[in-house]
């Protein structure tokens, strides 16, 4: 196993055995799991908006019997007075037992981990990575299909800025999967990710045509086109609403296909799809609880996970 059990900054910190082991620990973290984090404190430091990541980490810590401090808006902290990220982390290091950080800058979680003596978890660093989202995505896929090998996963939408796509595609490369990247030209998967996946022996196809992947995809992993990542509003306007999935996609979909989305959505999945058996994105979001309980317990050394 590759993981040092100190921090979780990148999905690349984990090898295939680490991933499978975390998913196994998460399966033991149901509502009946005995709390183990009595007296421990989680600090959630969110410099960017979040609903799922912050609240599911906080709920997970409460479910484990621990406590939570933190902020969801750094403008109310001493960052507004010019305090650096490293100094903020060095202070929180003395107040908490583990930190989850979300920050708009790529590499910020690594910077935080270097400044901290306690474990640091990356809750999303700019357009770079979102490893805990990946683990709950994998948990959902494994729960649904019982396997990863043999699956074709089609990523749809904003693959350039989509940190969830970057982390999940890397994780899936540990398995015998085929990946389809479906995006408009300006939001294609970055070339270095495509070539890295191909070097790992993964069959990759790229297209802008959603219809072409419907008959072959076991998983449609749909993503929001992220307005906040565009430097020029006119560039966003060119791709806004590029994919709007409605019930009509189900006619051509492969038998057993499931739709995942890290959420939030804007307009890329029509509400009419919510009730379809293929739509499992709300279940996926709720899987953040067992997965994040497992990560907190493992990083705090509270489970026998050898
Ligand atoms: N999927 C996800 O990261 O959602 P939030 O931005 O609401 O945390």
Task: Explain the overall architecture.
- With 306 residues, this protein is of the alpha/beta class.
- It contains 12 helices and 9 strands.
- The chain has 2 domains: 133 residues, 3-Layer(aba) Sandwich (Rossmann fold), CATH 3.40.50.1370; 154 residues, Aspartate/ornithine carbamoyltransferase (Rossmann fold, 3-Layer(aba) Sandwich), CATH 3.40.50.
- The strands form 2 sheets. Strands 7-6-5-8-9 form a 5-stranded parallel sheet. The chain has a 4-stranded parallel sheet with strand order 2-1-3-4.
- The N and C termini lie close together (10 Å).
- The structure holds phosphoric acid mono(formamide)ester.
- The site of phosphoric acid mono(formamide)ester has 9 residues, from α2.
Task: Describe this structure in a few short sentences.
With 306 residues, this protein is α/β, with parallel strands linked by helices.
Q: Summarize the amount of helix as a percent range.
A: 25-40%
Low-confidence stretches: none
Overall outline: globular
Number of strands: 9
Strand content: 5-15%
User: How would you classify the helix and strand content by structural class?
Assistant: alpha/beta
CATH class of the largest domain: Alpha Beta
Q: CATH superfamily assignment of the largest domain?
A: Aspartate/ornithine carbamoyltransferase
Bound molecules: phosphoric acid mono(formamide)ester
What is the distance, rounded to the nearest whole angstrom, between the alpha carbons of the first and last residues? 10 Å
State Rg. 19 Å
CATH architectural name of the largest domain: 3-Layer(aba) Sandwich
CATH-derived topology of the largest domain: Rossmann fold
Give the mean pLDDT: 95
The total domain count is 2
């Amino acid at each position: 196993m590759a993981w040092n059990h100190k921090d979780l900054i990148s999905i690349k910190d984990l090898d295939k055995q680490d991933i499978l082991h975390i998913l196994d620990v998460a399966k033991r973290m149901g509502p009946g799991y005995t709390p183990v984090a009595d007296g421990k404190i989680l600090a959630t430091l969110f410099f960017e908006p979040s609903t799922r990541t912050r609240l599911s980490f906080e709920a997970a810590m409460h479910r484990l019997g621990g406590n939570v401090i933190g902020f969801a808006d750094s403008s109310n902290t001493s960052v507004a007075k010019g305090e650096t990220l490293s100094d903020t982390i060095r202070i929180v290091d003395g107040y908490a037992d583990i930190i989850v950080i979300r920050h708009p800058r790529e590499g910020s979680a690594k910077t935080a981990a270097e400044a901290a003596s306690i474990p640091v978890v990356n809750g999303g660093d700019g357009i770079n990575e979102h490893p805990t989202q990946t683990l709950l995505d994998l948990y959902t896929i494994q729960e649904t299909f019982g396997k990863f090998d043999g699956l074709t996963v089609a990523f749809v939408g904003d693959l350039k800025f989509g940190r969830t796509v970057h982390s999940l595609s890397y994780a899936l490369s540990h398995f015998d999967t085929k990946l389809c990247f479906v995006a408009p030209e300006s939001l294609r998967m970055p070339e270095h990710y495509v070539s890295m996946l191909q070097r790992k022996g993964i069959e990759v196809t790229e297209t802008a045509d959603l219809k072409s992947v419907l008959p072959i995809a076991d998983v449609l992993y749909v993503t929001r086109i992220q307005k906040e990542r565009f430097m020029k509003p006119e560039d966003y306007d060119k791709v806004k609403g590029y994919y709007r999935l409605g019930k009509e996609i189900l006619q051509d979909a492969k038998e057993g296909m499931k739709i995942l989305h890290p959420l939030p959505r804007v307009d890329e999945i029509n509400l009419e799809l919510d009730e379809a058996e293929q739509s499992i994105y709300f279940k996926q979001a709720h899987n953040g609880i067992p997965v994040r309980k497992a990560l907190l317990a493992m990083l705090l050394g509270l489970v026998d996970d050898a």
